[in-house]
Amino acid sequence: MKLNVAVAMSLLLVATMTAQDNPPIRFGLHGGVNVNFHNPSFPTPQPTGSPYFNTSATSATGAIGVIGHFPLSQRLALGMRAAYSSLGNIALDATSGPAERLTAALPQLELMPTIGINDVILSESLWLWGGIEIGIPLSPTYSRDSAGVTLANGIALPDPGTRIALAFGAAYDIPIARQWTLQPELSIRFPFTKVSSNSAFDSWTIPQARLAINLFYSFGNERTDTTPPPNEPFVRGRIGRVVSISPNGDTNDVRTVKLEDVRYTEYFPIVPYVFFPANSDRPESSYRIPDMREAGESFPADTLKDALAINDYTIWLLCRRMNQYPTAQLTLVGTDDGRTETRDRSLSLRRAQAIRAQLIACGVDSSRIAVVARDLPEKPSAPNDPDGIAENRRVELRASTPEVLEPFPSRVGIERLATPDVLIFIPDVASSDPIKAWELTITQAGRTLRVFRGDGTPHPITWTINPSELSSLQVPIDYTFRVESVLNKSSESSGSIAVDYLSSTRTLKERAGNKTVQKFSLILFDFDSDVITPDNRRILDVKILPAIVPGSTVKIYGYTDRIGEARYNLELSRRRAVSVMNYLKSKRPDATYETAGFGETIERFDNNRPTGRQLSRTVQIIVETPNQ
Question: Nearest 5°: CA angle at 343, between 278 and 382?
Fold first, then answer.
């Protein structure tokens, strides 16, 4: 069974989403039962013949007061409480010296600011909070007796100190009426201070646990009850999480995207295939076809910064490079999918001839282009998977001169790079009937950056942020998620992510602190393979090895497409990373190497397209070198 990314991330914290309306301010009553854990060790120093108390004990007391709850967003809130509480009512027996018992009453006025967050695990009704307890003593007293004889009664405790304690708790909202909420709560407090600074009562601390009930009344900005009436159609949708995945496999909630200007050059791999629709000899409609007038030096992809968009110009690029290398020979191998096309070699031949005709039309001499027809490709994709079947409908490009299909360089210039550069949006949808369609729109400063659409139940949505895609204005990234059911019920929610922009002009390579960082995403693997082909070895030798010097740290991250089982793909991506590491290490053993595999978890390219799946069978190589 495929692993669902949303399930794998379901227990992780997200506090960065903002909602359209904050919940209401709440005030109420607080009451509870305390369990006090006394840890006495006094007096210090112990006078000769004085009793010594050092045995831990517990006592049960109560607390009552008022509480306020001030939301900052749907998931974050400040709190304040004031309560009368007692730490004492405890009898301590001496462990040495005269046989005495000490009884203490330790009332205090408790003031405590808190900060809480909900929707961390299980339910948005569950709050986790932390705070600082400030306890002001209210005339604490103690009594002492020995063998039934009162030695001291109701004596004021000398030098009582203000109690400072770190508090943590969990509470759960239970609506009981239109604007009333009952909230069970469990908390524990760890003191930093002692009960008294007097030497006769030194080293007496009292941690405390409290089981309490809060009763809230909501004022203003009342949250609309979104619970649908019984048997009435409804749909509710939102983006529950925005996350990134680290190289060690940890899922991190994205609160801020950092932007930095660098002088930057990137190479993009060229997929050596042209794909075709079923039973057709015309390439997929995404390919841009040049004519003779457009086959000169001007190349529209020169300004593109996305590998998938650049590969839409594969035929155009072939025209350009075949004219640049006049001795190069090109073989076009047409194939069919072996399933829906019933092994139709004539269709395979027509596909190869169609690409040949397009190349001739843009100025490539016909004598330099050979065509071959076969059924399945020599190295087919999964022949029983719909994605694999679609990928086997293609024309393979084989050039005698490697430069014809070598990676394509983007334009060198100042680019804004984002960290992280891949965000995964996790939808959270509830509906009484099936989902018909959904849409995620991402904007910044009123400018639309991306629109993702789909039919049926929404899946995790991956956004790879291209260089300079985000604005230089330090304004948030906004997103709107809309979902519609088959009964035309719809829901819309919004959120935002902060942007931290650091502008700096750097050298040709991206610099990180005292390191120089170079990134390469040039290696494409065959389907279900971790073998480095001769073409890949050439790319490693020519493009990547020169960047590695003694002292460099080389990080290699592997990826796969979505075909196959997720656990297998994760292992395959790791094998790809290790395979590249072993090759580089054999040539540059004096560098440090690290590998990781992401499998299909990060969809770096659109896997709904054959070219996107091919580009996803890759490794990213990052070379970090200390500056001299």
Answer: 70
The three state secondary structure string of 349-396 is: HHHHHHHHHHHHHCCCCHHHEEEEECCCCCCCCCCCCHHHHHHCCEEE
Q: Are 577 and 596 in contact (CB under 8 A)?
A: yes
Give the 3-state secondary structure of residue 558. strand
| DSSP states along 183-219 | EEEEEEEEESS-SB-SGGG-S-B--EEEEEEEEEEEE
Convert the pLDDT of each residue in 221-266 to its tens digit. Answer: 444 444 555 567 888 999 999 998 887 777 889 989 988 776 666 7
Output the CATH code of domain 270-406. 3.30.1330.60
User: What DSSP character marks residue 22?
Assistant: P
Fold of 510-626: 60s Ribosomal Protein L30; Chain: A; (3.30.1330)
Condensed to tens digits (0 to 9), the pLDDT of residues 164-220 reads: 999 999 999 888 877 889 999 999 999 999 888 887 776 788 899 999 999 999 886
- Give kind and range of the element (H or E) at residue 496: strand 490-502
Q: Please name which of 582, 592, 513 lies closest in space to residue 553, comparing C-alpha atoms.
A: 592
CA atoms within 13 A of residue 595's CA, in its CB half-sphere = 21
Cα–Cα distance list, 472 to 313, 421, 444 (Å): 29, 16, 10
pTM, 2 dp: 0.55
- CA distances from residue 24 to 151, 222, 526 in whole angstroms, order as listed: 55, 5, 56
The answer to whether the bond into 175 is cis (omega within 30° of 0) is no
SS3 of 616, please? helix
CATH level 3 topology of 26-219: Porin (2.40.160)
